[in-house]
Design a protein that fits this description.
Layout lengths: L10 H7 L5 E6 L5 H14 L8 E5 L2 H14 L8 E4 H11 L11 E3 L1 H14 L9 H13 L12 H19 L2 E3 H14 L1 H10 L2 E4 L7 H10 L6 E5 L15 H8 L4 E5 L7 H11 L20 E8 H17 L8 E5 L5 H11 L3 E3 L9 H14 L4 H7 L9 H14 L3 H11 L5 H5 L3 H17 L5 H12 L1 H5 L4 H19 L5 H11 L2 H14 L3 E5 H4 L4 E6 L16 H15 L2 E15 L2 E4 L14 E6 L7 H8 L34 E4 L3 E10 L5 E7 L3 E6 H4 L1 E4 L1
Parallel strand pairs: 1-7, 1-8, 2-3, 2-6, 4-5, 6-7, 9-14, 9-16, 10-12, 10-13, 11-12, 13-14
Antiparallel strand pairs: 14-15, 17-18, 17-21, 18-19, 19-20
Helix pairs in contact: 1-2, 2-3, 4-8, 5-6, 5-7, 6-7, 8-9, 8-10, 12-27, 13-14, 15-16, 15-24, 17-18, 18-20
The chain binds a DNA duplex through α3, α4, α8, α17 and α24.
DNA sequence: TCGCCAAGACTTTTT
DNA sequence: GTCTTGGCGA
């Protein structure tokens, strides 16, 4: 079939893409072409079924997924996509809430609070209620509030059984009051109010539901209750809902995601058509079999039989290291040898771990070996202090009621205004029934004539100065462009001088601000409101993942990332490290079977990222919080059929620091070097003697010099030389030329 | 009011 | 081991 819209689809994919009206549930295993199905389906509806783009809503979880989909669909259809609602759940709701603000307890220039702001506000609420922050940690109270919202429970609807629940309920109530006072919503509110709006106003529900002839959803397994309800409302008129997901890849339970929404969907729509995508285009069969043996032990799911036509492939290599240094050493050695053998590039590799803390040891090993690497997602651009500062200045201008932002920037840079003065102003503002921001502006505009002058006390003058500055921005914002406003704020407060102290970090900080300014330039036409909303909703992951993709394309370096961050990505060779009890599965998941099932899924996600080769690595002993911990192998390792695994045994424990020694005489990749400088050891080579490979992976061998070992990989070079990677019991990984290695094959 | 030091925390983090 | 937070002294 040469029809580009339907070309290159397997029968199940085709069935999904061309399915008729009604409810369609596509369960798509990893690497089964889920994105392809979704984009083709969209194109099919528009191009073949003549559905106008504005009658379609397609929701994703990330902006990146949304923009990718949009770009791909645009290349497939003739007509433009004008009017389509294609974006994240949160962006979609924000749009709806601004439009329907008349029915809501906030107005349409609300700001969106990120998790930092939310926590600040929870703390404030707890202080207001005189609740001891030591007894009830604000983070956990916040988590409980967030969970309630995701479950569509308001402050009045949460259970008040235990003392803790009582505390949560009271803080929740106050927290909501504060949000309204700040004219702000949090992430969860976007969904909460979105669902509430459609539930409580029938005509609004009809308005949207009748407009959207087709509803499409990506990553359906990650929806929470609010999102599920929202989707039901949106599809309540035409009842055409097409969802794609995979229960087995649901790894955000702790954020309210409930994979059982897949089961709920089947129950709510008994006539739904269920399509399984089981052909995997990514991994070898060995990898898929291992993945399946791990995931099949979970319940409440649709069993899937992933298959590949890529052949069995290499066995999985398991390596048990004595400690975390040796674990990192194994990873680095193996990668360096393969790169040295010129059969792999740094970008072919990824190292995945359960917790960010594990990256440190691995990074050190990479640095020591001079191997190029990069981390995904560890440093959050939007979490950076300087970025947050500037955003808060802007938010304050947009919405002077935003007390969280005001509080943050009032002493940036320090201007002699302290906690006492702020508290005085807040009290006075509260008494007058206005927001503290408005009081500040009043003070700035009329100075001593303001009723708040006396209330503030000693630093009233300084407070008024700052108020005047802010008032200047607020008065100007309608007249000047976003970028001019940006520049004006920075120069008025002397921000560059404040953060850039000419140290490396200082320069770095200023560069981040400049980066933010570049982003602002893109929004110069659209203005401040949209810029801020975009900052709140695009945040972090999208930008960082994009950067990471560019980086691994251009500079070619090994990717280090958490298992969570790995979702949706793929690499030729994957190392999963820390396969130990209490690491993976994590110790905190031990007393809850649901949590444990999620750890299993996390491992499953990791396994299925690998295209060609998977390494499972653990350490008997690792440093956590500066102390040594011993641990058992992860329970998940037992679930993989031993015939799929090449067991490496463990490194002789006599010299745990041997990697440092190895590096000085092994393959010479020990100098700090750019990727190109990672060279492999060059033997004084004799001409090739044989044309056929003598060794193959899995064979046990013995060498005079290195003792017993196991072949990891053998490759025949174009000159007929056989290059082998051998892992020796006592010497670790060696990269050798077969003709010179003088190895004896053991039975 | 600000900055420094010490005690305490410390999974994961699509929006 | 290292980052954050909060208390205290200048």
């Amino acid at each position: 079939m040469s029809d580009p819209l339907l070309a290159n689809l397997n029968p199940q994919q085709l069935q999904a893409v061309t399915a008729g009206d009604g409810q369609i549930l596509v369960l798509a295993g990893p690497g089964s072409g889920k994105t392809r199905v979704l984009t083709r389906r969209l194109a099919y509806l528009i191009d073949r079924m003549q559905v106008p783009a504005y009658e379609i809503v397609a929701v994703t979880f990330t902006n990146k997924a949304a923009s990718e989909m949009e770009n791909r669909v645009a290349t497939l259809v003739q007509s433009d996509l004008k009017g389509i609602w294609l974006g994240t759940f949160h962006a979609m709701c924000a749009r709806m809430l601004r439009f329907e603000a008349g029915y809501l307890p906030f107005n349409n220039n609300f700001v969106i609070f990120d998790s930092d702001d939310q926590e600040t506000l929870v703390k404030r609420a707890m202080r207001d209620l005189k609740i001891d922050e030591k007894l009830h940690r604000p983070v956990s109270v916040h988590a409980a509030i967030s969970a309630a919202k995701n479950d569509l429970k308001g402050p009045k609807e949460v259970t008040r059984g235990s003392y803790k629940e009582e505390v949560v309920a009271r803080v929740y109530e106050r927290y909501e009051q504060l949000l309204r006072l700040n004219n702000a919503v949090d992430f969860d509110d976007l969904l909460f109010w979105g669902a509430k709006l459609l539930r409580e106003h029938e005509f609004l529900r009809d308005k949207y539901a009748s407009r959207f002839r087709h509803v499409l959803v990506d990553e359906f397994q990650d929806t929470n209750m609010a999102q599920y309800e929202l989707l039901t409302y949106l599809s309540s008129y035409h009842k055409n809902i097409f969802v794609v997901g995979d229960e087995d890849q649901s790894i955000y339970r702790w954020r309210g995601a409930d994979y059982r929404n897949v089961l709920r969907f089947e129950k709510d729509f008994p006539d739904c058509q269920k399509i399984l995508l089981e052909q995997n285009y990514r991994s070898t069969q060995v990898i898929l079999d291992a993945a399946r043996s791990v995931i099949d032990r979970n319940h409440n799911r649709t069993p899937k039989h992933l298959f590949s036509d890529r052949g069995a492939g290499n066995k999985i290599v398991r390596y048990d290291a004595v400690d975390d240094n040796a674990e990192a050493g194994f990873v680095v050695d193996t990668i360096a040898a393969k790169i040295g053998a010129k059969n792999s590039l740094p970008r072919d590799f990824a190292v995945m771990y359960r917790t960010n803390a594990q990256s440190r040891v691995i990074e050190e090993a990479f640095m020591h070996a001079g191997l190029p690497y990069h981390l995904v997602g560890a440093q959050r651009f939007y979490g950076r202090r300087e970025i947050k500062d500037v955003i808060c200045f802007l938010r304050l201008v947009e919405n002077p009621s935003d007390e969280v932002s005001l509080q943050r920037v009032i002493s940036v840079p320090p201007r002699g205004i302290g906690e006492t003065s702020i508290a005085n102003l807040r009290d006075a503002a509260n008494n007058a029934g206005i927001s503290i921001g408005d009081a500040l502006l009043d003070l700035g505009r009329i100075g001593e004539a303001s009723p708040y002058w006396a209330a503030v006390g000693r630093s009233a003058g300084k407070m008024a100065d700052f108020g005047a500055t802010v008032a200047g921005w607020v008065d100007q914002k309608a007249q000047i462009s976003l970028v001019s406003l940006f520049d004006r704020i920075l120069s008025d407060v002397g921000y560059r001088e404040y953060i850039d102290d000419n140290t490396d970090e200082g320069v770095d900080r200023w560069e981040n601000v400049e980066e933010l300014r570049r982003l602002a330039e893109d929004f110069n036409e659209r203005g401040l409101t949209e810029f801020l909303q975009n900052l709140a909703l695009v945040s972090d992951q999208d930008t960082i993942k994009e950067e990471e993709e560019d980086r691994s394309r251009d500079n070619s370096s090994v990717t280090l990332l958490t298992l969570h961050a790995a979702k949706g990505l793929e690499y030729k060779q994957v190392f999963i490290v820390g396969l130990d009890e209490n690491v993976l599965p994590h110790s905190r998941s031990k007393d809850d079977p649901e949590e444990m099932a999620e750890e299993r899924r996390l491992f499953y996600v990791g396994i299925t990222r690998a295209k060609d080769q998977l390494y499972l690595v653990r350490a008997e002993r690792r440093r956590t919080f500066g102390e040594f911990d011993f641990s058992e192998p992860s329970r998940f390792l037992k679930d993989i059929d031993p015939s799929l695994i090449l067991n490496e045994g463990k490194r002789a424990s006599s010299r745990s620091s041997r990697y440092e020694q190895d590096l000085t005489w092994g393959p010479s990749y020990n100098q700090p070097a750019a990727p190109s400088k990672v060279r492999h050891i060059s033997f004084e080579s004799a001409p090739a003697s044989s044309k056929a490979a003598k060794y193959k992976a899995g064979q046990r061998v013995k060498s005079e010099k290195f003792g017993e070992g196991i072949i990891l990989e053998s490759k025949l070079e174009s000159d007929g030389e056989e290059i082998i990677d051998v892992h020796f019991k006592d010497y670790g990984l060696k990269h050798l030329m077969a003709s010179l290695a003088n190895l004896e094959i053991l039975q």
